[in-house]
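Bug #77: duplicate submission created two jobs. Keeping one. Sequence:
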Amino acid sequence: MGGVTLLVVGASGFLGAEVCRQAVAAGQRVVGTYHSAAVGVAGVEPRRLDVTDRSTVRALLTEVRPDAVVATPYRYDDWTVTADGAAHVAYAAAEVGARLVHLSSDALHSGRLAPYLDDDVPTPIHAYGAAKAAAETAVRAIDPGAALVRTSLIVGEGSKQIQLCRDALAGRATLFTDELRCPIDVVDLAAAVLELVPSEYAGLLNVAGPDPVSRAELGLLVARRSGLDPAGLKTTTAVAAGVQRPTEVRLDSSRAAGLLRTRLRGVIELLAS
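Kept job's structure:
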């Protein structure tokens, strides 16, 4: 993978930073974009970018001429960043002939008992899920050869998900018992994304961990790993909280497991004492 230029859009984010670290270690030239928080990874060429400004996105990619683009930007409550921004990046990447790996989310599913397969159509029930679904639609229309990675809760030291669990154990937050996801370690996800860069894989791919757990169960795993008292864990249900968000969303990542060398570890293994 050495000798190529990789552009990571959203390099100051949790996943984007890990993609940068691994790509730099592999000997690639890495250009990483940020909007407000600076890029904190050594060896990365930082560039400020507003993905909602199409002309600025095009100008940056025309200047950098990357061989590949990993696109991770999102803002939970901002359609223009999550949906329009994804379209702008896809258009500019296609214009310069760069390979595109776009990061999507399980948030575009409504939730059900059966696991979701890679090609299941989006059924969003909230604004963020709809924005992620719209982003996928745009990317697939602009660049049919792009890889679109649907992932789940991203965990690892420093992740928002782990911090939320610690806050709930300290009584500062509440975790839902009826909201199931398939957490994945940020290191595994970044490695999987970088495996897809030189590949010819096109279309949707679920890349998540094999263990479906509720957010409350994740909190108990964090308590065990950290030696914290689980008795203090504050829990409720999404229904009781009146939150309109998908509940049970299990991603079937068997296609990715067969395609990639990277082993997608389950959260139970990751947080085992």
